Amino acid sequence: MVKEEEKVVFVYELDKLQHEYRKCTDLSMRQKIREDITLLQEVISNPENDANGQIIKY
To answer: What is the DSSP letter of 54?
Structure first.
């Protein structure tokens, strides 16, 4: 499970990425930012993270 302190950092970083995404005009860069946003959203919302904050793969 992701620790609350880590989650706060992830949410902060997610907010920064979303801001960058909105102002970015380069389509390839927007795609990379979008991928990072998706990954962070998964980590933040996934209750199946182990105690070390790692995503469990099945």
So the answer is: P
